[in-house]
Write a structure and sequence with these properties.
The structure is a single chain. By secondary structure, the protein is an alpha/beta fold. The protein has a single domain, classed as Arginase, Chain A (3-Layer(aba) Sandwich). It has helices spanning 26-37, 56-59, 65-75, 99-118, 148-158, 174-179, 228-246, 272-284, 299-313, 324-332, 350-370, 372-375, and strands at 4-8, 46-50, 124-127, 163-167, 186-193, 217-222, 250-254, 289-292. Helix 8 links the parallel strand 7 (250-254) and strand 8. Helix 7 (228-246) runs parallel beside helix 8. The two termini are 37 Å apart.
Length: 379
């Protein structure tokens, strides 16, 4: 069995965005506890690694030093008089004590995952605290303060790796795309709810990169209501030809699960079936694999999805039902237990399927027209 590393720390629970904020740190603890109670973390081929923060120098491979100074000042209560130019201090991105330390810890965990896989200490590594893909070099955005995927990818690229980044979060991976928009060493692929309907309002087929990077940024927007069938249709139409042409030697995946049907902030309709089918495809590539978390605001869905994903990484089959002691833990926290795996894929009516498939086909057609000629792919 291939070895899989799981990067985690109880310290993540210290960094709280505040009462009422959608991004809740309990989702990380629940994922860890579900995996533990399913026996996943005691397997011979699994290593649990204590998360460690990244260094200032590592964060500066992506972020401006002035912005990092401002984040550090928030932690040290030497508040900058105007935080708004840095995207800080309002609803999405509150300025709270611990914002810098917590962001450096989650970014360090993504770097640990990248190093473990790069150094062949494991075939795959999962940092569930990572995947904070909206942060820009000089500002916070969309609950994200430091762009850990970009920092991890910068490390891999600096070590000669040709990186494929695939993002299946409901939101466009705009920050990662921005950082690598003009390089051909990293291909960024994002499948997401269309920016016409959802933050950040970006990620359209014509956004294909610039300069040396022209053809290496790929976006497939999807309609609200898109479920398993159409999401997978777009995924499997798009990814195989890109992998064949790009020939990456390592993959980084952002496994946000705010694309699930019951997520309170988005409008897609994935089930565990559609999600795990895509995750299995990543594993089937046989490439070194760095997996990161991301969005997910139904915290029980987060624990389910990321536990199933890590099961695939560790070549293990998880049960259909949650363990009884985990159900008790959920109830203690005022949460409702669900089956670990959804009973069936999401279903749509004939009219919905036709509408969503027609839209997906139109988007794929635009991608083939804009992107495939640049990459030399025959449609």
């Amino acid at each position: 069995m291939k070895k899989a590393a799981f990067i985690y720390s109880d310290k993540f629970q210290k960094y709280d965005y505040g009462k009422g904020h959608p991004l809740k740190m309990i989702r990380l603890m629940l994922t860890y506890e579900l995996l533990k109670r399913c026996g996943m973390l005691s397997r011979d081929n699994v290593e649990v690694v204590e998360a460690e923060p990244c260094t200032r120098k590592e964060a500066e491979t992506v972020h401006h030093h002035v912005y990092l100074d401002v984040l550090r000042c928030v932690d040290e209560n030497c508040m900058h008089k105007d935080l708004s130019p840095y995207g800080l201090g309002y609803g999405d991105n509150p300025a709270f004590a611990g914002v810098f330390a917590g962001s450096m810890l989650s970014t360090g965990a993504s770097l640990q995952a990248a190093r473990i896989v790069h150094e062949e200490k494991a075939a795959s590594a999962f940092n569930i605290s990572g995947g904070l893909h909206h942060a820009m070099p000089g500002r916070a955005s969309g609950f994200c303060y430091i762009n850990d995927p970009a920092v991890a990818i910068k490390f891999l690229a600096a070590n000669g790796r040709k990186v494929l980044y695939v993002d299946i979060d409901a939101h466009h991976g705009d920050g990662v795309q921005h950082v690598f928009y003009e390089t051909d060493q990293v291909m960024t692929v994002s499948l997401h709810e269309s920016g016409h309907y959802l933050f950040p309002g970006t990620g359209f087929p014509e956004n294909i990169g610039a300069g040396k990077g022209r053809g290496y940024s790929v976006n497939l927007p999807l309609l609200p209501g898109t479920g398993d069938e159409i999401f997978k249709f777009g995924f499997f139409e798009l990814l195989p030809p890109l992998v064949d042409k790009f020939r990456p030697d390592i993959i980084v995946t952002q496994l946000g699960c705010d694309s699930f049907e019951s997520d309170p902030l988005t409008h897609l309709r994935l089930s565990t079936h559609g999600f795990t089918d895509m995750v299995r495809w990543f594993g089937g590539l046989g490439l070194p694999w760095v997996a990161l978390g991301g969005g997910g605001y139904d915290v029980v869905n987060v624990a389910r999805a990321w536990s199933l994903a890590f099961g695939i990484m560790a070549d293990a089959e998880l049960p259909e039902e949650m363990p009884e002691d985990f159900k008790e833990l959920l109830e203690e926290n005022g949460l409702e237990a669900k089956k670990l795996k959804d009973e069936s894929p999401t279903s749509e009516t004939g009219d919905e399927i036709k509408r969503e498939r027609d839209y997906a086909c139109d988007m794929l057609g635009r991608l083939r027209k804009e992107l495939f000629p640049v990459l030399g792919i025959r449609s």
